[in-house]
Amino acid sequence: MSLRRFLEDVEREGEVLHVRNELSTRFEIPFIMKEFDNKGFVLMFERVKGCKTKVVAHISGTRKRICKALGVGEERLYERLIKAWRSPRKLKIVENGPVKEVVEKPDLSKIPVLTHFERDAGPYITSGVVYAKSHDGEVENVSVHRLQVLDENHLAIRLVPRHLFKLWQMAKRADKDLDVSISIGVHPAVILAASSPVPFGVNEFHVANALLNNGLRLVECENVEAYAPADAELVLEGRISVKKEVDEGPFVDVTGTYDVERKQPVVEVVGMMHRRDYFYQALLPSGMEHRLLMGLPREALIWEAVSKVVPKVNAVNLSFGGCGWLHAIISIEKQLEGDGKNALLAAFAAHPSLKHAVVVDSDIDVYDLSAVEWAVATRFQADEDLLVIKNVRGSTLDSSADQETGLTTKMGIDATKPLMKPKELFERAKIPSNKRVERLTRKLLGL
Ligand code: MN
Questions:
Q1: How many A from CA of 201 to the centre of ligand 1?
Q2: What is the pLDDT of residues 287-320, one digit of tens each?
Q3: Cα–Cα distance between 47 and 165 in angstroms, integer?
Q4: d(CA 146, CA 126)
Q5: Which among 64, 62, 1, 57 is positioned nearest to 29, based on CA atoms?
Q6: What distances in angstroms separate CA 277 from CA 4, 53, 385, one per listed residue?
Q7: Mean per-residue pLDDT, 340-350
Q8: Residue 349 and residue 343: Cα distance in Å, rounded?
């Protein structure tokens, strides 16, 4: 299962927009990406200034497309994800693969890496799936990291204190640089697995393989001790230095604000392999794709946790405006008074970065923010239905949280109908219709 195969399917459905004008990697391509964010199209930039390689963007840019990539309906997505997290599948290591069509000396200047925002420190690789293993071979990890291009064969890697950071600390203690493969242009299942909150010790490639029904194969790298998807477009082989650090950033993160400059480790790129006509996968920081890849796995966690305290969870939306990370809208089947608040508590426990959450009844579409606001307007009383939790751990991504302690205030809004009051009070009025008038309306709307 390759990104290329998947893109052929997307192309057949007319969802690939080919941009044939010559464009620069510095701001021009990112500008168009931003304007086309969440418009439903994959963008294929055919002519890149000073480079033969095409740039493709917004691959996992909509929920629908992610579901399509996993071959699952939206209503089964969370179950499918959770099942893959809990039952990862070992996979085949093959001798050769399309990614080895060209094996060459690394030269990052040949790759159309984008410079996205005005004050970004420089060009950044944003769709790099990084594989590493511990020196004893016990732990393998795959995760997504932003990578700042420093020169032809050096990158700075942002290591948030999670699994790869832990492996790097272990390498530091052994005083041995950490070998990595950085895969760019992989099937959506691979990047989604790499963004998933599975425990340390679970190989996310195995999760991806479960998502792909054993459809993932890996090859061994040529210059480092690492594996990479045999069907990737491009793979960089590198070593994360345990000694050398540089100033990394500023760079726009998922919130759309600038993340500060920090000392981060240097990756020496020692090898490069790719398909003969590889294309480069771009990913717009703070765009829909970024927020979906981060948010969807957390929605699954919230869905699972809330399902344990109320009869049914219809849908969860870590909304775009909430950066796909800080705001949740949860639609539940309420059975007893107080279910809404229990749902809120479960959601906050399931996703510690969550800051604001709204719980609504099943007649409210969690993706229709105007309907959510309507529920808050007509079903919520602040003195009864508001939950405020002070001084809890939140996300440091939130500029308004205490940046030193990471402490924040969380707010939950229970906008479900009170069961004690007559149902009719909260009923949304409907206008009766018939087939003829519905058809006419669609026509008038140009649908
Ligand atoms: Mn991990």
A1: 7
A2: 999 999 999 999 999 999 999 999 999 999 999 9
A3: 37
A4: 5
A5: 57
A6: 11, 7, 57
A7: 98
A8: 10
Which band of pLDDT confidence, cut at 50, 70 and 90, is reported for residue 260? confident
**pLDDT at res. 396:** 83
The pTM assigned to this predicted structure is 0.95
Question: How many angstroms is it from 174 CA to the middle of ligand 1?
Answer: 20
Q: Which pLDDT score, from 0 to 100, does residue 232 have?
A: 98
pLDDT score of 142:
98
Helix 3-12 with 63-70: angle, nearest 10 deg: 120
pLDDT digits 0-9 by tens, 193-212: 999 999 999 999 999 999 99
Ligand 1 geometric centre to CA of 175 (Å): 22
Superfamily covering domain 289-426: UbiD C-terminal domain-like (3.40.1670.10)
**Distance between Cα 101 and ligand 1 center (Å):** 29
Contacts of 20 by beta carbon, 8 Å cutoff, 6+ apart: 46, 47
* Domain covering 80-276, topology: Pnp Oxidase; Chain A (2.30.110)
Distance (Å, rounded) from C-alpha 25 to C-alpha 126? 13
What would you measure as the largest C-alpha separation in the chain, in angstroms?
75
C-alpha to C-alpha distance for 291 and 357, rounded to whole angstroms: 17
Whose CA is closest to 245, among 220, 231, 275, 266?
A: 266
Catalytic residue numbers, as ranges: 253
Domain ranges of the chain: 80-276, 289-426
**C-alpha of 139 from chain center:** 23
* Cβ atoms of residues 385 and 340 within 8 Å: yes
CA of 106 to the centre of ligand 1 (A): 27
Query: How remote is the CA of residue 207 from the centroid of ligand 1, in Å?
Result: 10
Distance 272 CA to ligand 1 centre (A): 24
DSSP 99: G
Please answer whether residues 306 and 313 qualify as being in contact, where contact means their C-beta atoms are separated by less than 8 angstroms.
yes
User: Can you say whether the dihedral through the CA atoms of 348, 351, 352, 358 is positive or negative?
Assistant: negative
Report the percentage of the chain scoring pLDDT > 70.
Answer: 100
CA of 283 to the centre of ligand 1 (A): 21
